[in-house]
Structures are given as C-alpha cells and as structure tokens.
Amino acid sequence: MTESTSPQTSPSKSAFITGASKGIGLAVAHALAAQGYGVTLTSRKAGEVEAAAAAVGSGARGVVCDVKDPAALVREVDAHVAAFGGLDVLFVNAGVGHFGNVADLSIEDWQDVIDTNLSGAFYTIKAGIPALKVRGGYIFTLSSLAGKNPFAGGGAYNASKFGLNGLSEVLTLDLREHGIKVTQIMPGSVATHFAGHTPDDQKDAWKIQPEDIAQLTVDLLNMPTRTLPSKVEVRPSRPPKK
Fold it and tell me: Is Glycoprotein included in the keywords of this UniProt record (predicted)?
C-alpha cells in the first residue's frame, strides 16, 4: 500500500472512492472533502493517486488498490475505517473499456472489462458493507447509459454495465433494512480520460463534466433520508447535431 497523507483529525463522515486518480472519481473526492468528509482515493497507479490525494488535501488518503483483488479491497477498507473511524460513502467508480466486434474481441479484453467493471464493483461493495452497516451509509455505483442502450462494438462494456445495474438494483433491496442507500448513476458522454481519451476544454465543452457528477453526488447525499433516487440518468443537455 502507498498512502500519501494521514488525517490529522477524524472527520465525522468519510468516503472510499475507487478509480479516483482522475476524472469523476477525483472530482467526487474534491467535492466530498469540501463537504467535510475524510476521503480515501484508490487507483492502480501509485504516482497518480498520491498526486490526486495531495491535490484534494484535507487529510485525504491515496492508496494503491486494484479492484480485481478482493483481499486488497478488504485490507484498504479496513485501513480507511481505522483512519477515519468509520465509513459513510462508498463510491464505486473504477472502470475500463475495450471495444470491438464480439467476433474480434479478445478473451483478455473481455475478462479485463468484466473483472474490473462488474466483479471489481462486487468486490468493492462486499468489502464495504460491514462498515456501512455500522451506522448506515450510501453506495454509489458509477454505471453508464450503456447499461441500458447497447451499441455495436460494446459487447464487453455493455455487458458489464447491464450487470452493474442489475447488481445495484438487488443491493437496494438487500441493504435498505440496514439504512444503506444505493444509487446507480448512469451518465452519457463525460469529458474524462476514459478509454484513452484526452479531455479538451473546447471540443468537450458540450459534454457532462466530472464536476457535474460530483455535484449530483453531493445533492443526492443531501436528500431526505426517507427518499431514494435509486437510478439517475444524466445526459448532455445540448449534444452536437449529427
């Protein structure tokens, strides 16, 4: 494990965020830290997650963790609880994309997508549930509109997000009696580094921005406890004309 900083004081609430070295995960980390949450950011790349945690500040922790490793997730969630005194928000964000005709898609690419986007989400949630049960909390699964709208060349990615949506819906039923909310966030086009894209301020101005998803997350956390928006679809309001 690589940890960038240690919290000086224990905040009243905390969040564990996977895939947080850039993009949506990092934006959510910034937003929750600004709300007073202690945050742990995870990534497979040490240098990136250390820099991300340092940028968030406020005692943010940056740890190296591959969501395909269930034991590593248990270890890091336990370390998070030890550092912050508990867990309130689990933001399940780590994801990859490999695209191509099913006939041409390699077994390795299929496994990487399913193992990260679906099995990795399950492992993350499984590791976080015991701590969330202690005082209730919130699980966000970062899905996609690709979880309901198939497209050519999206065999692995579509399958992973359709599966994540199904898992999220079951979690809502499994965990509500424990005071744990579950929301699946399903964005369309987001200006991130996903699948090798390099965000461009001008070309990507029409897209959803990572900060928009972060704001949505904060808004959902501020909903009355009696109310659960269980599925939120998010689209660019004015996409380019085709």
Answer: no
